[in-house]
Every structure is written in C-alpha cells, then in structure tokens.
Design a protein that fits this description.
This protein is mainly α. The protein contains ten helices and no strands.
Length: 219
C-alpha cells in the first residue's frame, strides 16, 4: 500500500461525488471506478464518513495554494485587481469543465452540513480558511488606499465568499456562467466601488467597469 493508492481512491471518489452527490455514491461505486479491493479502501479509511471527511481535506488542499497564490503572493497588480482575476479564473474553470457540477466543496456542504455534525465542523474550518486570503487581500486594499480605513474587511470578505458560493449554486441550476458574471459585476462595479475613498476608484473597477458581457442586465 502506498500514499498514491490513497490519493487515487480520493481522486476517483471525488469524480463520482461531483457527478452524483455524496449520498448517491456508494462504496461499491468508488471501489469499481478506483479499481481497488475493499480491503485497500479500509486500509486508508475507517468508513464512508471518514472517506468523506478526508475528501474535504483533499479538495481543500488542492485549491488552497491557488487561493493564497492569487490573493497574497508576490504580484505587481493592485489588490482588488488580484481579487477580480481570482474570481474570473475560477469562473473559467467551472465554465470550461462541467458547468452543472459547481464547486465540489460547496456541493458537499449543501448535502451534508445540515445533517452531520462532523461534516459541518470540517466544512466550517474549510470555509474559514477559504475566506482568510480574501481578508488578507482586502486588508492590502485598505493599506494601499483602495478601500476606506473604516472597512471591516472580515465581514466584507465573508459576504463576498458567501455570495460567490450562492452564485455557484445558481450556476448548477441554470447551467450557465451568467450567475458568476452577475456576481463579479456587482461585487466590483457596485460593492467595492462604493467603498473606495472619495476620488479614488479601485483599479479593477476603473479598468474593467461594465465589461462582463451580460445579455440581460442593465448598466
């Protein structure tokens, strides 16, 4: 048994759960797609619940470097431009791959958070960690004068992340990128623009205002 076997099971299980949901994905389905015997599964995971909790960690660890890289790494772009590029990047991913599948972690949270305390606690930690680089990025925007000094960046970051997750749910329902485009339009052209100090627009708004290509919205 190797660590690669564990990762292989997680990867194949993630593909199934992304398409079918956690509850609709049976252990036998995971074993068949992964091509491993039941003993190999139980070598790494106590049961399906343990597999689900480890899967959340695996999914989180796979996207965490991108979150921190986009929003807190070395870059010449202004903070709010980084944030805009971050959401545009993930919009392209969800659009180019399988629009109706949505965010894997968000999907699991919709299905399991209300009924399983262990999943709820794990997902709460993940969402806190997802929000943290957004907090850091907004803090840099305050320091550089793109947002007012009075701004509560933690509350603002939570609102932005929660709104994004809502747009990802709508993406699954509509099978369209439009909910994400609307999210980006209002976050950057309205919300963050309204929080800029007098006489200074955020760079991402100044350079990209009304460039979202929406067909059913008004300026």
């Amino acid at each position: 048994m190797t660590i690669n076997t564990e990762r292989h099971i997680l990867e194949k299980g993630a593909e199934l759960i992304r398409r079918n949901g956690f509850n609709n994905t049976g252990l036998s389905m995971i074993l068949k797609v992964a091509g491993v015997p039941k003993g190999s599964f139980y070598y790494y995971f106590k049961n399906k619940e343990d597999f689900g909790l480890r899967l959340i960690e695996y999914l989180h660890n796979s996207i965490k470097p991108m979150f921190y890289g986009f929003l807190t790494g070395e870059c010449d772009n202004p903070p709010l431009e980084r944030l805009r590029e971050f959401f545009a990047y993930f919009r392209r991913i969800f659009t180019d791959e399988e629009i109706k599948s949505g965010c894997p972690i968000g999907n699991i949270s919709q299905e399991m958070a209300a009924t399983n305390p262990r999943f709820r606690a794990k997902l709460a930690d993940v969402f806190d960690d997802i929000t943290n680089p957004v907090v850091i990025c907004l803090g840099h925007a305050v320091e550089q004068g793109y947002l007012t000094r009075q701004e509560d960046v933690l509350q603002l970051a939570k609102f932005i992340v929660n709104s994004w997750q809502g747009a990802l749910i709508a993406l699954k329902i509509t099978e369209s990128a439009e909910p994400l485009l609307i999210f980006e339009k209002f976050i950057f052209n309205e919300l963050l623009r309204s929080r800029a100090p007098a006489g200074k627009k955020p760079e991402s708004v100044k350079n990209n205002q009304m460039s979202w290509g929406l067909s059913h919205t008004t300026p």
